[in-house]
Amino acid sequence: MVPEAEVRDVLDELQRLRARVPLLSGALAASTDGLVLAHDTPGVEAEGVAALTAAALGVSIRMTDATGRGGFRELLVRGGSGYIATYAAGSSAVLTLLAEDRINVGRLHLEGRRAGARIGELVDSALERAERPAPAPRTAPPRPAGAPNSALPQRPT
To answer: Helix (H, G, I), strand (E, B), or coil: what is residue 110?
Structure first.
């Protein structure tokens, strides 16, 4: 799981993205298995969108594999009143953007790819730190019985 500090950084990135691109109506970062990491999706159930994103991602990955197009990078769906764009965000997350129909799709891709890369860096580095084993505490070697404590100054005898 991604630590709370990185989740806050991901949410900040989503909010900055929505401020830069006014025709975005929502932004969501999720794990590739459909768990919400952070979202700024007013009026939209984030958990449902994350689960659907995971399903669409699975199909997209199979399509790119079957056609020899390489690893998944992005998916764009156009509905009657707007777009849903999903971008790879590192090795274990995706960024899904909800956009109004009037959006400039080139700008959507430009900003989505940049934000996906930043979010991917945050999530991947957090997961890498979490997987790294904690260093073992350093302890002094055992002293032989009756040996003076050499760490303390000794009074002459």
So the answer is: helix
The predicted-structure confidence for 94-151, as pLDDT tens digits, reads as follows 999 999 999 999 999 999 999 999 999 999 998 888 887 666 666 655 665 655 554 5
| 57 C-beta neighbours (distance < 10 Å), count | 20
The answer to whether the CB of 98 falls within 8 A of the CB of 26 is yes
Tokens of 24: 């975005």
Q: What b/e string do you get for 104-140 counting C-beta neighbours within 10 Å, with b at 16 or more?
A: eeeebeebbbebbebbbebbbebbeeeeeeeeeeeee
The pTM assigned to this predicted structure is: 0.81
In angstroms, the CA 3 to CA 103 distance is 33
Question: How many whole angstroms separate alpha carbon 65 and alpha carbon 67?
Answer: 6
DSSP 11: H
